[in-house]
Design a protein that fits this description.
Number of helices: 31
Oligomer: single chain
Length: 1005
């Protein structure tokens, strides 16, 4: 029997909120002795068949001894986890450590455990067992268990599928009527892919439930017109929401009534509503929110939009209220938008939901929009409305979410949803903070491979994160974050205006096949401005084709058709200014005719992006961006969204949020291919990017990027050449990234890497250098240990022998062999050759003693200078290589030239770890001072292959061992043949208990 001395401390870091397959949430935590009543109640609700599958015999009830055994664990050799929803236990999993004979065991020598699950029948099929499997496996690895064994009856096919689908290396045997499964717990590429796939489907489904509810209740609807709640209700009704709408206010009459003039059913409490409620919009004072959330949870509400303010943005007390709100919502399995949110919008014809404070529903279109700021959300919706209003226009929106303090639903969740949303072609995000940057980078990279992701980052400077946001502190500058985003395929822009400019072009135009731009128009001055802007942005413009000032629509059309037909052109930029005829400016009919001519020429020519720059011709911009006169068969002109109520996926009056759970199988690859086809990257793209969608996928696909519902392409127009060119340049860079991402680089394998030995060294050093009081504090390794660890990965550090006096310097030189270098290592002089702290090419003892005397005479005492002696190495270019773990950015590999270029000018390139061979090749060539490496002014080029190999080996070391939190190699002298690492420092720390590499879990801000 367990005693208090046997048990480890309660492992709070094992607690996690997870999203299940149907989009609901559950709480996973260790089972404690206090769960005895929960366990008994849970077991009573399990069917006899499930009990038989668990115990291989009829087992109608648990004895007191059973309850004690299943609720008392030492959290080392015996561990139990449970999933809870609404405070009720719905599933359990436990493991017991065993030895090679299958008997109970203790200690690290026994690295195998027997595992067993039990899921309440009402919750089977929701992916609960799969989520528990991920978490119990992570717990077991943490406790030194490397292998699970499970015995399952052959008829228990669901549980066998849980094990076989997990992606681990398995062994299956059958004996005495029982299937025995054994599998290693070391994560494999397949197991990680399975986990990420389940995470994607679950989180995307949870967002779909928010965006496509069958019924909405507004809690806090005022009795009189005005106020936040009444305005939100009015906006839902005015948008033409296709589901049921309810008003709730404790001041309404008992028994239900009708709210006039809206004619909406009104109730005193959510519990009085006779039917289901999928989404609750909460606009009550903060003090009443907990009671409202409880009512929602008990009524089975699936999601919340909290418009109420007074939470984390109000200070520390508000932050604690926000955390309590999130815990309460998740305990009932609900996702939450907010608090302090602006709301959400879905323009799909089968939904038409405006559950926000925006007074009007934007036109339906292809742009997905996420903001963390309500004010920015208002501005973006207004700006898009000005650039092209109406359903199907160039600036139409598919979905919009403004998350406020984003306590729960964040930009990461929307990326999961938009990735396979057929109604969204471009994702635009305004972010003030990134709560889980590693996950954001991972999701953005995957989404960007299918459709553009454009981000503008507010609060870019340290200390300016909004009060409502809890994020990891970052040590890297914003320029580094920007570089890492671009590596992941994210289009990072600087302003909200640039966000819209880029979004409109990407949503309406095909991607360019290259940087070659044709410029044509009826203004030479405007064309030259566009030409200069192209050169500034790194594009390759042709000499402008200037048309007559009074060029006709036929001349414009012919010029555009000729430009599009050219083999040496990848994009066309048209400039237009008003023309004057007989003392009058061009009338609207002429402008409309010009717009039609340009759109017809674009439709008839090859698929290349076309954009227009105009001056004082707002009517032209509107005519280019609107839909054609002909309409679709749908009278609203809005595209149907997935799972919209009343749509093909709806099975009852509640619509998609009712019972359209996503299947467990992987998402349809044909649908994903259709997504990518809408952003094909031109004739030079790989065949995989130009693959035609399958007939069944094409049948349900939205229109191609440039086409409006009427058939003519929409063309983005800009009032300034610089804005149009900047948007086009972003499209060119993104298209280049897409082509390269289609054939990604590889992480090379090196036969001489000693991964296991390095891991043993790291564990030993952490035991020696860290204390129980600060187990996660980083520690610097002694120079010899740092060199030894790097040597395990084939990185040789040149010896630097200490020289506390002149005689010691001579002995060191004799041991290394002349010629030698004498240099200081004091922090204030390190890497400062300009201060004279280095003497090179010392040929013998006499020169060495003289140099030693000079340094100590002019710079300080030997103990202050910390002098060392090193053997001379071949001359080359001094560089620096670093790897670090940043809490916000993740594992980052950095490279630059040593000295002023990196320290003074910030000329350093960064890549995410693990880096591929393509990543590091681009990295060393991306710094502004790169010409110094490749033969600048007749110098001999350095050994770039050796430098790339060093970067790859360092990346492997940090990626293989998360305990390595910092490595500095400086200087690294890169010669024409080979390189020499002259200085190295390494820092270690025990990794945090949970990372993005662990089992899926929702963040807790």
């Amino acid at each position: 029997m367990e005693t208090p001395s046997d048990a480890a401390a309660y492992p709070a870091h094992w607690e996690a909120d997870v999203v299940l397959r149907d989009g609901g949430t559950a709480r996973i935590r260790p089972i404690t002795p206090d769960d005895a009543e929960h366990l008994t109640s849970f077991y009573e609700q399990v069917s006899d068949e499930s009990k038989y599958y668990r115990f291989f015999a009829p087992y109608p009830r648990l004895s007191d001894r059973d309850v004690h055994r299943f609720t008392h664990h030492d959290y080392v050799d015996r561990v139990g986890l449970a999933a809870f929803v609404g405070g009720e236990m719905i599933a359990t999993v436990r493991y017991d450590r065993i030895n090679a004979d299958g008997r109970p065991a203790t200690g690290p020598d026994a690295d195998q455990a027997e595992v067993a699950f039990l899921v309440q029948d009402a919750h089977q099929g929701r992916g609960v067992a799969s989520a528990l499997m991920e978490h119990i496996a992570a717990v077991a690895r943490e406790r030194g268990i490397r292998r699970f064994a499970a015995e399952v009856l052959p008829a228990n096919t669901k549980m066998i599928k849980v094990f076989t689908d997990a992606g681990y290396t398995q062994k299956r045997t059958f004996e005495d009527g029982v299937v025995r499964l054994e599998f290693d717990l070391e994560p494999t590429e397949q197991s990680v892919a399975v986990m990420r796939g389940r995470e994607h489907r679950a989180e995307a489904r949870s967002v779909q439930r928010l965006l496509a509810p069958g019924s909405v209740a507004v809690l806090g609807t005022g009795r009189a017109p005005g106020g936040v709640g009444r305005s939100a209700l009015r906006n839902i009704l005015d948008s033409g929401f296709t589901g049921h709408t309810y008003a709730v206010n404790h001041a309404f009459p008992e028994g239900g009534s009708t709210l006039d003039p809206e004619g909406v059913p009104a109730y005193r409490s959510l519990r009085d509503i006779p039917g289901p409620v999928d989404l609750a919009v909460v606009a009550v004072p903060a003090a009443h929110v907990p009671d409202v959330v409880q009512d929602c949870g008990e009524h089975g509400v699936q999601g919340l939009v909290i418009l109420t303010s007074g939470y984390a943005e109000a200070g520390p007390e508000g932050r604690e209220k926000q955390r309590a709100l999130l815990r309460q919502a998740r305990s009932y399995g609900m996702r939450l938008v907010g608090p302090n949110a602006f709301g959400l919008i879905n323009t799909a014809a089968g939904v038409r939901l405006n559950a926000s404070l925006s007074p009007r529903l934007p036109g339906a279109g292809r742009i997905g929009l996420f903001t963390q700021s309500g004010a920015i959300g208002i501005g973006l919706l207004s700006a898009l409305q000005e650039r092209g209003s109406g359903d199907g226009a160039i600036a139409g929106v598919s979905t919009f979410v403004s998350a406020g303090n984003r306590a729960d639903v964040s930009g990461n969740d929307l990326l999961q949803y938009w990735y396979e949303d057929p109604a969204t072609d471009v994702a635009l995000l305004y972010l003030e903070s990134i709560g889980n940057p590693r996950k954001f980078t991972r999701l953005a990279r995957r989404t960007a491979a299918a459709k553009p992701v454009v981000v503008v980052k507010g609060a870019r400077h340290s200390g300016t994160v909004p009060l409502g946001h809890a994020v990891p502190a970052t040590r890297v500058p914003d320029s580094t974050v920007s570089a890492l985003m671009r590596q992941a395929g994210v289009i990072r822009v600087g302003t909200v205006t640039e966000l819209i400019d880029a979004g409109l072009l990407l949503a309406s135009q095909p991607l360019p096949a290259g940087p070659r731009v044709a410029i044509l128009g009826n203004s030479e001055a405007l064309a030259l401005l566009a030409y200069d802007a192209c050169l500034t942005e790194g594009l390759r413009p042709q000499h402008p084709h200037v048309l007559p000032f009074a060029a006709t629509t036929a001349q414009f059309r012919a010029a555009l058709a000729d430009a599009l037909a050219g083999d040496r052109i990848d994009a066309v930029l048209i400039t237009a200014i008003p023309w004057v005829a007989e003392g009058s400016s061009a009338d609207p009919e002429e402008i409309a005719a010009l717009a039609t001519a340009l759109r017809e020429a674009a439709a008839e020519g090859p698929a290349k992006p076309v954009t227009v720059v105009h001056l004082a011709m707002e009517e032209l911009a509107g005519a280019l961006s609107c839909t054609a006169d002909s309409r679709t068969t749908d009278e609203t002109g809005a595209p149907d969204g997935p799972g919209a109520p009343g749509g093909p996926e709806a099975s009852d009056g509640r619509g998609a949020a009712g019972d359209t759970a996503a299947p467990e199988s992987e998402s349809d690859p044909q649908a994903a291919a259709t997504q990518a086809d809408r952003h094909a990257v031109g004739p030079e793209a790989p065949e995989s990017d130009r693959q035609a969608p399958a007939p069944e996928a094409a049948e349900n696909a939205p229109e191609a990027p440039r086409a409006s519902p009427g058939g003519l392409p929409r063309i983005p127009a800009y009032p300034a050449a610089e804005r149009a060119v900047r948007a086009l340049a972003e499209a060119v860079r993104y298209a280049t990234w897409r082509r390269e991402a289609a054939a990604p680089g590889r992480v090379p394998e090196y036969d001489d890497i000693q991964e296991a030995a390095a891991g043993a060294d790291i564990e030993r050093l952490l035991d020696e250098l860290t204390t129980d009081a600060e187990p996660h504090r980083s520690v610097a390794l002694p120079a010899d240990e740092a060199a030894a660890l790097l040597g395990r990965y084939g990185i040789r550090v040149r010896a630097a022998l200490p020289a506390p006096d002149a005689d010691a310097a001579v002995r060191a030189a004799e041991a290394l062999g002349y010629p030698v270098a004498l240099k200081t290592t004091a922090p204030h002089l390190r890497h400062r050759a300009d201060l004279g702290g280095v003497r090179l090419d010392l040929p013998g003892e006499r020169a060495l003693r003289r140099a030693y005397q000079e340094l100590t005479d002019f710079l300080g005492k030997p103990e202050e200078l910390r002098l060392v002696v090193q053997a001379m190495v071949p001359r080359g270019v001094d560089t620096l290589v670093r790897a670090s773990i940043d809490p916000a950015a993740g594992a980052v590999l950095s490279f630059g030239l040593a000295g002023a270029p990196s320290q003074l000018l910030g000329d350093t390139a960064h890549r995410l770890i693990p880096a591929t061979d393509r990543d590091v090749a681009e990295q060393i060539r991306s710094i502004r001072s790169a010409p110094l490496l490749f033969g600048w002014r007749g110098s001999q080029p350095v050994d770039s292959a050796a430098l790339e190999e060093l970067l790859l080996r360092l990346s492997r070391l940090v990626d293989d061992h998360p305990e390595v939190v910092g490595i500095d190699l400086e200087p690294v002298v890169v010669a024409p043949h080979g390189l020499s690492v002259l200085g190295a420092s390494v820092r270690l720390a025990r990794p945090p208990a949970t990372t993005d590499l662990g089992p899926r879990r929702l963040p807790a801000y």
